[in-house]
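FORM 7B: Structural annotation worksheet

SECTION A. Query
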Amino acid sequence: MGDSLFADTVRARASDVSDLAVALEDDVSGDSADDLYPRLLQAARSLGGRLLIVDADGKVRWDTFGEQSGRRLALAEVYTVLHGEADADHGFHQLAVEGQRQAASPLDAITRRDVSRVWTGCFAAPLMSGGARAGALLLVVSVQDTVDSLISLRDSMLAVFGAALAAVLLLAGLITRIVTRPVAELSAGIERMTAGDYQHRVRVPGKGEMAQLAAAFNQMSEQVHNLDEARNQFVSNASHELKTPLSTIKLLVESLLYEENMDPALRREFLGDIDREIDRLSSVVGDLLTLVHIDSHKLKLRRERMLLSDTVRESVRRLSPLARKRKQEVRVAIDDPCEMFADPGKLAQVCYNIIENAIKYTPEGGKIDVKLHSAGRDAVLEISDTGVGIPAEDLPHVFDRFYRVDKARSRETGGTGLGLSIVQQIVRLHAGSVTVQSEPGQGTTFTVQLPLK
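SECTION B. Predicted structure
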């Protein structure tokens, strides 16, 4: 924009000088200066500058300011025009003019611009006579206004550029803060979680990718927190379950050691109690090892073609003495043999644990129904009892490790609180599901679904 403005000014001045030189050719070639000088003065006022006529030798013949008449001009613009090197020429020079200074600019301290000297433009055109160059017409005019306009334009553009740059930097800073703040939040959250603070949650507003990542992190943190609490609870429960029989055994052994004249019948009773506590301890340890193998994915299923009906019948046969002792009736209804490719030993443990629970938590004289049938591509095993039932608030926790609905009764029956958890894990390994329905005083029904193929 500035270059265009300056170029337009140069073209206009050069055109004016060339046109005036053509108009003055007849007057210059004549002998009378009376008509020429007034025209020069009028043209100088019209052009707003100073006009000089230079002869072929470079001497000034007429000067509208009257200062250079008779002197030789050593200007390159005049030289090129007189010697035919150019049809018109121009140049710009900084001159010290009394009472004139350039307009100040905020950038003067940086550019070190000399404002005491103003810019002057010299525009030269040939004066022709008889087809030869008889001299040159020179217009000397101040171009400081144009220079000031260009400098002002430059300063304005720099100010606009500076404001735009500041806005861009501010916007970039805001965008960077918006982008990096969630990352910093996530990083801080990871550090706190690494330090063991699983309750910390990252807060990232919005619905973008960072918000989704923060939500995923919070979900993971909550899961880790739940797993950590479950682990601590598991360790506490396992320690308690192991400590109780050990304490009982220690007490009984100390009684046997320090009671020298103990009655033989009482001694046998104590030894029987020790034997039962050892069995209970072995059962807890065995169940714990099973769960550890499942959790560590080291438990491998030994799958083979099998009939689930055979496994169900064998479990009922093994538990029949316990049912008869409690005067209970175990009714078996098998509608389909349910052939499948599974681990017979692990499914036998599932059937045994559920049926044993039904017998233990059903009062004397109660009934246990064991039903097996197929439904689509699944085998469905239902084990119902007429026992005490499970309260609604306890139903969601029956598969939790060491969870007991009635802790006192569970210890009386010898339960470890791990059986149903093992059942659930084994069924899941077979890509099946196990659910429970119960009403207090009405009995309980466990339903196991296993894929047939």
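SECTION C. Observations
Residues 2-149 form a domain with the Beta-Lactamase fold (CATH 3.30.450.20). DSSP finds twelve helices and twelve strands in the chain.

SECTION D. Sign-off
Analyst initials: ____
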